């Protein structure tokens, strides 16, 4: 009985994965590739992007990202949880296809979690880090992306997209940014 339930669940998951892909157009993935790829005329280094480079501290190490090559994604989680909702899987599918593409395959990306201003700063920092880690894990597991290419970090409520409206949903997001250099 347990085997048949497990087998049925495995078949359902295998059947569901292609259905995500069917909902993602090549245009969506290509748009993400264009936004996240470094310029063809310049190598991906901090010196190439002096105006758009920003330093971020991740686990006591400095990572330099290119804000000109970053995107915000609305990723849905249950309240007070880091578990991805089914809609989040669909929404992240184009990102996964883009990150697995030949155009982006050789680059490293920061997966940054952000929250709104509801709750304590310490709690939001932890929640955003767990959510960024969930997105990272989904991308690695679903698209066989090398884990060394994706760095997860949480910013909590420290970088609100709409500071004038700290409780607004627009602040709850995941940002993906090209890493120019990292201090390993």
3D architecture notes:
With 184 residues, the protein is of the alpha+beta class. The protein has a single domain, classed as OmpA-like domain (60s Ribosomal Protein L30, Chain: A), CATH 3.30.1330.60. The protein is 38% helix and 22% strand. It has a five-stranded mixed beta sheet with strand order 1-2-5-3-4. The protein is globular, with a radius of gyration of 17 Å.
CATH class: Alpha Beta
Shape: globular
Order of strands, widest sheet:
1-2-5-3-4
Poorly predicted runs are 2-22
- Tally of individual domains: 1
Structural class: alpha+beta
Rg over alpha carbons: 17 Å
CATH topology: 60s Ribosomal Protein L30, Chain: A
End-to-end distance: 49 Å
Strand content: 15-25%
Number of strands: 5
CATH superfamily assignment?
OmpA-like domain
- Quick one: biggest sheet? 5 strands, mixed
- Determine the number of helices (DSSP H or I, runs of at least 4 residues): 4
**H/E element sequence:** HHEEHEHEE
Averaged pLDDT, please? 85
Helix coverage percent = 25-40%
What's the architecture in CATH terms?
Answer: 2-Layer Sandwich
Any chance you could write out the topology, listing elements then pairs?
Elements: H1 2-22, H2 26-36, E1 53-58, E2 61-73, H3 86-99, E3 109-114, H4 121-143, E4 150-154, E5 173-182
Parallel strand pairs: 3-4
Antiparallel strand pairs: 1-2, 2-5, 3-5
Helix pairs in contact: 2-3, 3-4
